Each structure stands twice: as C-alpha cells, then as structure tokens.
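Please fill in the sequence for the structure shown.

STRUCTURE ENCODING:
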C-alpha cells in the first residue's frame, strides 16, 4: 500500500506534472498555475488518499481534473461551453475545418529561415550547458529517449534526471531569451 510523501512532491513530480500540462495547455504561466493548484488540492485531499494508486498516478489524476477545469474556465470566459464550428453556407459539405486549416507543409521561405535560426540558437545554447547536462537534455527532450534508459546509461536516479532536466531547461530558457527573443 502506497503512502504519500508531500515533502518530496516538488522534487519528485513537479517537472513531470509541468511537462504533462504544458503539452496540453501550451501556456507557460497557465501550466505553472495548474501544477500549483494541483499540488495544493493534493495537499488538501491527502487524508482521502487510499494508497491504491502510486503517488504520481494520484497526482496526475488530480492534474487532469485541473486541466479540464482550466478549459472550462477559458471556454466560459469566451461565453461558450463548447467550441463549435459551423459551415459558412448550408450548401457546403465535408469536413470544413480539415479543408480550411493551414497546411503545415505549406511553409514559406520566411518560416523556413526562422525555423533554421531557432534551431541554430538552440544548438548554440545547448553547447553552453555543462557536457553531461547537455547530453541528458538532448536525449530526453530532443530525442525523446525514455527515463529508464537515460538513467541506466548515466548511472543516475530518476529524481536526479529531472533535476538535471529542470536546470537545463532554465539555462536554455535564459540563453534563448538573450540570443533568440531579443
């Protein structure tokens, strides 16, 4: 039977919860707020934890509800319970959204140049990280290698991996802020 260890939540799960959230909301500040709300809700509900699920699974379940709440709030603020699309005219048939959405393959020269400049900025910032940190960041974030494989290869714990990734992200963010966004 699992027991909770709230003192370790930030060290053990904050990066995971943030990564899970940012992919779904695509807003850095909103993701941070949702993770904070999740941890606060978990703290308040800790006496209700039955130990049937792993601690991370339990926190992720709370997080999923917080993400749903976020979208309800966003849609409510827009005056909509659901986002709906209608055809411009009754005669139109087919999947209007799919027919009219921008083609990701239809990029102009400016888009291609901007992507290349960003790629070069990322590589430049990656070179400024300590060697081990850069390699672990590249493996996890760019190549998508699973945690277990990286930990085994570098002889580190999953907690240590996430600390390294967190520090690399902060460094990369600061570097890109200087070299790319300004």
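FILLED IN BY: designer on duty
SEQUENCE:
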């Amino acid at each position: 039977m699992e027991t909770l260890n709230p003192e370790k939540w930030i060290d053990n799960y904050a990066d995971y919860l943030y990564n899970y959230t940012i992919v779904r909301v695509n807003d850095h500040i909103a993701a941070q707020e949702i993770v904070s709300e999740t941890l606060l809700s978990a703290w308040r509900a800790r006496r209700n934890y039955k130990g049937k699920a792993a601690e991370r699974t339990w926190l992720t379940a709370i997080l999923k509800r917080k993400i749903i709440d976020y979208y309800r709030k966003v849609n409510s603020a827009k005056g909509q319970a659901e986002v709906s699309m209608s055809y411009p005219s009754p005669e139109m048939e087919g999947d209007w959204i799919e027919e009219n959405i921008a083609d990701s393959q239809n990029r102009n020269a400016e888009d291609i140049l901007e992507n290349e400049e960003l790629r070069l900025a990322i590589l430049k910032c990656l070179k400024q990280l300590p060697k081990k940190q850069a390699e672990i960041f590249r493996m996890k974030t760019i190549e998508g290698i699973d945690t277990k494989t990286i930990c085994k290869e570098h002889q580190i714990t999953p907690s240590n991996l996430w600390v390294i990734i967190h520090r690399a992200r902060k460094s990369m963010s600061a570097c890109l802020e200087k070299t790319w966004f300004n």
